[in-house]
Amino acid sequence: MRAKQKNRLILAVVIVLFVAVSVALALTALRENINLFYSPTMIVNGEAPRDHTFRAGGLVSVGSVQRDPESLAVTFRLNDGVNEVTVSYTGILPDLFREEQGIVVQGRLLPDGTILASEVLAKHDENYMPPEVADALDTAKKIGVTDTDKE
Amino acid sequence: MLPELGNFALILAMSIALAQGIIPLVGAARGMPGWIAFGRTAAWTQFLFLVVSFGILTHAFVINDFSVAYVANNSNSALPLGYRISAVWGGHEGSLLLWVMLMGAWSAAVALFSKRLPPEMVARVLAVMGLVSVGFLAFVIFTSNPFDRYYPAPADGRDLNPLLQDIGLILHPPMLYMGYVGFSVAFAFAIAALLGGKLDAAWARWSRPWTIVAWVFLTLGISLGSWWAYYELGWGGWWFWDPVENASFLPWLTGTALMHSLAVSEKRSTFKSWTVLLAIFAFSLCLLGTFLVRSGVLTSVHAFASDPTRGVFVLMLLAIVVGVSLAIYAWRAPQVKSAGNFALLSRETFLLGNNVLLVVATATILLGTIYPLILDALDLGKISVGPPYFNAVFIPLMIPLIIALGIGPLSRWKQDEFPRLVRLLRGALLGSLVLGALIPWLLFDSLEPMVILGTALSLWLLFTVLLDWFHRGRHKASRWKGMLGQPLGFYGMALAHLGVAITAIGITYSSYYSLEKDLRMAPGDELELGGYLFRFEGVQSNHGPNYTATEGVISVSRDGRPVDTLHTQKRIYTVQQMPMTEAGIDPGLFRDLYVALGEPLGDGGWAVRIYYKPYVRWIWLGSLFMALGGILAASDRRYRLMARRKAEKGVGAKLVTQES
Lengths: 151, 660
Prior knowledge:
The complex is a heterodimer. Chain A folds into 2 domains: 1-34; 37-143, CATH 2.40.50.140. Chain A has a 5-stranded mixed β-barrel. In chain A, a hairpin with a 5-residue loop joins strand 3 (66-67) and strand 4 (73-79). The longest helix of chain A has 31 residues, at 2-32. Chain A is of the alpha+beta class. Chain A is 32% helix and 28% strand. The relative contact order of chain A is 0.17. Chain A starts with a helix and ends in an 8-residue tail after the last helix. By secondary structure, chain B is of the alpha+beta class. Chain B has 4 domains: 1-165, no CATH class; 186-222 and 244-298 and 308-412, no CATH class; 417-514 and 618-655, no CATH class; 516-615, no CATH class. Helix content of chain B is 64%, strand content 12%. Chain B has helices at residues 2-30, 33-62, 69-74, 81-86, 92-113, 119-143, 167-196, 201-232, 243-268, 272-295, 308-332, 347-377, 387-407, 418-444, 449-472, 479-484, 488-513, 617-634, 637-649; strands at 383-385, 515-521, 526-529, 532-544, 547-558, 561-573, 578-582, 584-586, 591-602, 605-614. A 5-stranded antiparallel sheet of chain B has the order 3-4-5-6-7, with no helix packed on it. A 4-stranded antiparallel sheet of chain B has the order 2-10-9-8, covered by helices on one side. Chain B is globular, with a radius of gyration of 27 Å. Strand 1 (34-38) of chain A pairs antiparallel with strand 1 (383-385) of chain B, so a sheet runs across the interface.
């Protein structure tokens, strides 16, 4: 019985240690890879982080899409009905990217207030609005430019 | 008239499911043979009504009955017949109807293939499955009825989402659902065993084939989804750590742990409480997956417009299932005594390691998947967790898992000696390390540490599987005869483990050596990538039954010899005016050439993606091996023979559970 209990104890200690280390590593990885979502209004108010990637979403402003004739560089503006931010991106835009479409971009903020996007996401259903974007539009409509209830 | 009959059949099925959930359970508790036998009849009848209901909905799609709201929302008269049939499960309501019908099919299968099981056990299993069916049938009937009508009927339907008009998506949901629902059998067996207080080796043996079959379907479903995403989403990714993908991967990981832990429960009569818990978790994660996909709480590539109020229903269902089953567990599990004793170095320990690693992997992925939802629900901000998190936590867990996977099958039950294992395995270890460095160097002229690791781990699996096979033939008069005379269960395990190696190679090589280029191309422009010359020949118009397309033509040559001409389309589906990219792929065992047309850039120029993806097919090839291995393992005749012998000897011969 003694040997059995000792074995069990060793196994239990090893498993607990292993799980603890995994959890610690997972939490560290989680902290480094969380991207907060900001609406154009929040970005204009200077709430978006300067040194970390984040997500932004809104509607693509009418007439704002400008392409570079030689490369895949493109700039466009995102609005939430009140404020607007400029996004610059190099690459192929998703199929459902178009004016007035709700989209989400991931990227970082440049010193001039432009978002340098590494990813542009549009959803697979044209009637579908990403929940974040719908929420951002609602908030902007309700509170106008004084939205500061998030951090 | 017919759709109302379909609805009526659905309501009848629910009434029968309710009876199936109560009568056999009472019968088993009181020992009333008639009530016990009712389970089988009910399972059959319930399945019959569900098939009728499903058939009527399919019929409505075939004849374009747009007075049925669900048909009008998901089909169109211009949609080809094959897609009209697959559109039955293309939307929320119909896919849930498929869910409950498959649930009925599993119940009927249990009723059919359980002739040799003790009747009380079958009664309890069918009752638990009946109760789960009641929950989902109520969900369909009260919140998502596919037979609701439009009045007046629209002239034509809104068409099936173009993304779903594809063979991959015809097969993906039924496979995935078969897997999800299949875990309800393992779950029902576990609950039935807890209720009956007979948590013995026989219970584990009965659960094993069912669990394996469910796992096979889930494996196929997930890899079909991954394959579909690869060629249909138009950007060549095969896994995005998207919440909905994770939702299917979580039960797969837990189910894999469950299969292995059931093996220990059967062979060594230990780990039993743990196995029951895993069965509960695996099915709960299947329900969670359904909740995540069907509630619309997620921002994901799968987030088609869905109704958030329905989420509350699934969430309640999930809470009831988890709550009740954990309560039963808490009530009954303390009476379970594990008989087996094992040393620190033994096959039990390796399988325990397998379970711990898989469960920790499940937990970390679950954390990354639902953390954003929890924060959002508590109004603490909107966040997303990116793929780097999942890669950072998942890959380090898979490395020790694969190492243990190599040793486990060769180690002895109960107790093994370290020197024996070293003697047995040192050749395989040395070989995989040396060849692991040599092969990437020869193939890609590269010495990337992670690639060496990936190659070495895959070779380690290959060598240990072969070694295990060779080793098993040793006691027989002729080694060949011994090796060929192994039970199917062994070949199944070997194939599935080889599948892991194949998938690992595919993931490693395609992640590290893919060449990807997005660029602007005008007709006549050329690009050299991975030794292939891609020439953009220009675009032409094309059209299908329900779309118009701009088709980019790209010819590929290698050393001046033509290889293939790839056609990639930018389609506009006429009804929804929805654009879609259709990639052009030249598939190969060792590399895929992948092109996709982006948007027009003016002056005849187009944005074009050109990818060279080495070994990407191996990812899905490996999962085919795993599935095939599962099928072999589940058809091992041992399960049938043992079941017969048990039945003859009288169940409970090996009872280790003590009734209080």
